Amino acid sequence: MSRTELEHKDDEATIPFSDSLHFSDHPVPRRLTSSQKRANQWRRWSDDIIPRMIVPYLSYIEETLSLRHANVPGERHSNDGECGTGCRTRSIKVACVLFDAFEEITIIACPCFPAPLQLLRRGLFPCAPMVPSLAVDLRVLEFVRLLFVRQSPNQTAWCDALETFLDGMRYKLTSKNSLRRRFSNVFHWYRVLTVLARDHISTLITDARKDGSRVDQPSEYLRSRCPLCFGGNDWRNEVRGSPSMPNIIVCIDACFTQKRSTNPHGATGSDPPNPTSSFFLPTADVNAMEDFVQRCRGEGRQARASRAEPDEDCYEEGMRVPVSVLNGCGDSFIAADEKREKASTRFFTDTGLMALLCRHDRVLWVANLTSAGEKQHYALALLDRLFKHLPAQMTIGLLYDIGCQLERSCRKWKFMDDNTLSRIAFAVAVFHAYGHQWPCQIVYHPRKREGFGLSDGEGCERLWSFLKPLIPSLRVSGFNQRLFILDTQIRHLDSKSLQGFGHWLHRRWIHCQTKKNGALDSLYDLQVDEDMLRVEWKAQVDHQTKPAPRQSRNKAAEVITTVLALEKTLEAQEASIRELEMQLHSGRVPDIVEFNLQLADIRSRRAKTADTLRRRRAALGTEDKVNLQKMKKDIYLTVRLNALAVKTRIRDRLRQRKFELERLERSYRATINAEHKLHANTQQSIKRREPGILKLVSTYNGLCSQLRSLIRQRRAPPYAIMPHIIPRDGIFLLDVDDDIWQDVGLDDDTMAPPAWLSDDAVRNGICLQLEVDRCVEEEARLMRERAVIQEWMLAEWGAIRGASNNAVTDAVMSFHLRSRADELVNICVVWKKKVQCIPCAWPVGESWGPSDEALLQAARDQAQSSFRDEDDAESVEGEEGDCEGDLEYGEIGDEELMDAIEDIALADEYRYDYSNELVDDTDDIDDHYMPSSPIKLSNKCRCI
Question: pTM of the entire structure?
């Protein structure tokens, strides 16, 4: 049979299902277009065939003991018989793809017992809903399903390999590439069936749990998303223990690499939706939030137009950081600029993703981005959906790269009412805090702000890293198909993280205790009073977040100081331009494209600085110009301004270095095409983007030495403070407690300096005390999660037992509920063992649900291998295991350039030890290691 005949055979039965619009009045129907046939077939799959296959599929799984004893495809099922209702029957020949064979069978189909159900009874899944020409063994499909959530899905390569494999065994297909299209159809609808089948069992369990006791609690959806955040019996238990902390911690971030290309032929519309639940927000909800944001901003602008802007820096309503600082954060942080184009809407219909995750890296919801920039209405739509599923008094801690800007907009444009805003504690993610001004960091950094413990807010980054293999295939997929694939991967992450919660809690607890004890020991050595440290920290926050007056008595002196600083900055920028131009003339340019971008950037900044300096000089009066010349002759002031200018430049260069991820991604692609080692390209890229940073540090330290010498010689103003030298080691880490952020000894304060500024013991003590406070908060949250995880297990076990009692007469449902119970027992064994060292925040009893006998048997099963080689004893301590080098979700591999860049601590290795390879050996990780994600576990090899 030819390929054309097979295609016609698959589609001819879809004609009677078509809408009447596609038929003429003539008895013979018109021929349908390909798109109409596909739409009809999709609708028949979704509305008719798949719903009818759920129970038969579950029955087949029960009958074959989870596909362990599959039926022979050619044999008729014992319950199959001829139709007794007189239906019109049809004989259909179906080619069957098995693990080790390619066979053809004949079935008799009728409307009351269609071909898909008959094939499913034989352990096969069809390629078409009515008259299939191909069916695939369920074991093959299950193997591919498990494979494609663990590696980049490539159905074309799989089908080509399968055809070659069958051809090698002398099994010939009817035509070239005839397998790919049909297998793709089979595989998609099989995945849909497995999702709906598992949801069917979950619904039975949920219905058994509904007893009316969960009043004023997080929704059932949230409870299913994260047991540690929402699985407790009563969320108010946490409030009674630690009322100052947010009840839950979530993070938001956007990713502009997960794009979908525009149809090259200009076709509009999208593929039909799948009949499965999705983690994505409905498009209508996102559009409604966008309209709401536009209305609020329009009304806000009209109201603000009637008010004059204040002449002095000030606090906006409800904000703890002055306007000048917020504007600086907005200027320095790329994501704060909504108009910045991150993905072209000309070439991409969907430009990216934005996700809302809890602190355990569990996805709560995802929004599909269609704009060129990271607009705030996406984040607001995600938060709006979250609050609709939370009790009215439940509070959240929100970690977002530009959390300060989001809070500012919410208060400025009234996106949220005061009650909702009072339930949100805004903070910035740890890794992206470097892009914010120092006053913003001491308010919004999670290591400085109360309530966030040791949460880092980088769960979204780990999610994007896991989803990277999907980028090529999803770039050209349909709209709903793209969402379905992403939903499938998220479900896979849920399965892995559920098993890893026990390990995660254990390692977080060990890490927290180690960090806390180390900080307490260091505090004890300092011998500084705790109350005094808290008073000094409050004074530091109040002073460093104080608005900077725009009009004051020293206005002229400030302008002169600014002019001097601008002149030094302009000189440094011109020197950099000359250095780059000499490098260009000498031909020592490894990447001309990147070099031109760098040169254009520094020229643009030089032009901006020159324009600002010109305007500031023009604003000087005659007396100010005379004072300017006098100040230039002041040696101490000149050196101090030089040091301040160099330090400001160092900060800018370090920020720019971290903000260059997109350029490094282009270098990454070029490296792939050139087939060079990625870690070598990483070294070169980082070195090219650090020209002069260490030289600037040396220059700054030299100026600090001059200032110290002038202070000792009494040639400095009274109460002058010696500035701190910047250590070369760790300069690229940009830690929140580094001296790079504070200009100690470089400002104009000539009064008696406070202890938090002048006393090193107090300054170090403040950092250590804040570290202890965060560890105490983390400890309290882990104790709460320890109690919640046991309450969730008890409730889930009770629900499964209740559902089993309700289905005692149904052998199929009883089997699947027993299987779900076995899964829960295996998880419970690990959880109970790993969290036994963590005390509960409140009494929860001894029982975890399953009996001691069941837990003991599960522990024995986990300790025993399913098979054992004779050379086990030698392989344990000898050769490397087969699994060495495999990377889990969230880990860094050589092939992931962007992940290597994001782990900025590796920069020191590139600089000081070029011979070291970038490795990620997880075999030696012990319990002191703290993974950032429940899914990132120590991948210890156990040879079997």
Answer: 0.77
